[in-house]
Amino acid sequence: MSESDSRPGLDGVIAAARAQAPGRGLPPVHLWNPAVSGEIDIVIRKDGSWVHEGARISREALVRLFSTVLRKDPDGYYLVTPVEKLKIVVEDAPFIAVRVDRVGDGLRFLTNVGDEVDASPDNPIRVETDPQTGEPRPYVHVRNGLEALIARPVFYELADMAEERDGSMLEVASNGAWFPIGPAEAQAL
Q1: Architecture of domain 95-188 in this structure
Q2: pLDDT tens digit sequence for 13-32
Q3: What class has domain 3-90?
């Protein structure tokens, strides 16, 4: 989808996201309460791909732009501008953690949209178990209730960094906090 292809509703989102100059940080979407609200046919799939009206948004820069105006409210996920709030569908987590590095005493994650986040008490790592497969589903908090699913290869790296604690759990340390990632007997991943 090209920029000139933008459908009504996307124009405002694109303009608001672009208004946030590079280097100035993320827009304050948590402060915006626009009067206009609606829905837009955008889905963030489980694999981290963004889809608009059935077509994958292949321009990485556009996905990154949209990710800066993404907000999670109690009733769902929205692309938010000062004048418009458009509900979208998120199948799992809106982001994927595609890399982890040990930086000092912390674990720094990089997401598929370029966010860097240090795991800490404010940005915890959590692991759920998929009820259908029994597989671990690990996440790291990124910002304002938005999480990244930790990609399988990154989770394997965490398992390699983990220490057995209390005789039964594997945990990783980051910025003074310990985060359980699974039972110790599962270490043979």
Answers
A1: Roll (2.30)
A2: 656 555 554 455 788 998 89
A3: alpha beta
- Cβ neighbour number for residue 24 with a 10 Å cutoff: 8
pLDDT at 1 over 50: no
Instruction: State CA 179 to chain mean position distance.
Output: 18
Domain boundaries defined on the chain: 3-90, 95-188
The structure's pTM equals 0.84
What residue spans of 27-88 are helical by DSSP H? 60-67
C-alpha span between 44 and 41 (Å, rounded): 10
Average pLDDT of the segment spanning 142-146: 95
Cα 127 from Cα 73, distance rounded (Å): 22
CA–chain centroid gap for 125, Å, is 12
- Long-range contacts, stretch 2-5, CB < 8 angstroms, 24+ apart: 2/59, 3/62
Specify burial of residue 100 (Cβ count, 10 A radius: 0-12, 13-18, 19+): buried
